[in-house]
Amino acid sequence: MSALHDQRLAALRQRMTETGTDLVALGPSSHMYYMSGVDPHGDERPVMLLVSKSHAGFLMPALNVDSSRQNTALPFFPWADDDGPAAALQSLLQASGLPQAPNVVLDETMRTDFALLLLDALPGASRRFTEDTVGFLRARKDDAEYRLLKASAVLNDRAIQAGFDALKDGITELEVATVIRDVYKKAGAVPVFTSVCFGGNGAFPHHHTGDTRLKVGDAVLIDAGGRLDGYPSDMTRVGFFGEPTEEFLEIHGIVERAVQAALAASRPGVAAKEIDKAARDVIAEAGYGDRFSHRTGHGMGIDIHEPPYLTATSETVLDEGMVYSIEPGIYLPGKFGLRLEDIVILHEDGPEILSDMPRAAVLR
User: In the chain, which residues have pLDDT < 70?
Assistant: First the structure.
């Protein structure tokens, strides 16, 4: 187990003390990877990392133990297919030193049968999810995570710029997406998603890139992200192929003002819903409130979508080290969609944008 994971385990135990938690149970997930560096194969065989205030160890199918040992010094409680996991789980729980009727935190992404296996072994346990323990820690990025996210964002700048540079009359959305993915691959990153939208396809916030061909007079929306050294990127930029229309430039200006408003509102101690409101008010006042159909942003770390979420109802209080997207948009069916997205990390004096690529319309 690395020094970084030792620090995270110590921080988790501190949060457990502060929240009255006796046991944290994590399945094969980004939570487990964050806490231990172990990213085991996930199937129907129960796998769990159990952390108490005095012990931490893995319930693990025997056939996966040797591989997982390469990434951690924590003990394993292996079980074989012929025997099943019950006895190994009991041994792990005994080593955990739990009180009667413990207060248990469950990984919300864990398979239901894994969770029930654990809860059935702990009669009388109370349970909740990870929001105030592992989730609390993950929402506040450390310096190592900041550097990884920044490097991934800068690579994404190059990839999306390459997509815009490839625009030519008759090219398909899929062909542009291939150009973008190739940039990730050549840099040793993994493409995660590539949404290329020509013309009216941009009015679908989650358009599936297809065979639509580019023609003069089309707006072009590119929303893409890759994963570099385990950490993702996510950014949206919009351009125009040919002479941009007055309507396009007007909408671009409104959305840019909405981004600026959300950036200005982003401060430690502010509720996430206030960031959403700042962006939404700009668009509503311009007369396009009904054309902004989604939340203003989502957190990002190991996962592309993770807390905090910037919605109209989110009471989450923003804190230093939080990383999230700001991505207001206006969608005009049959014409185009215009969304501008940046990932920011929140500092004491406000947000820092991870991307270096301007949000100005890319004109080709």
Answer: 1
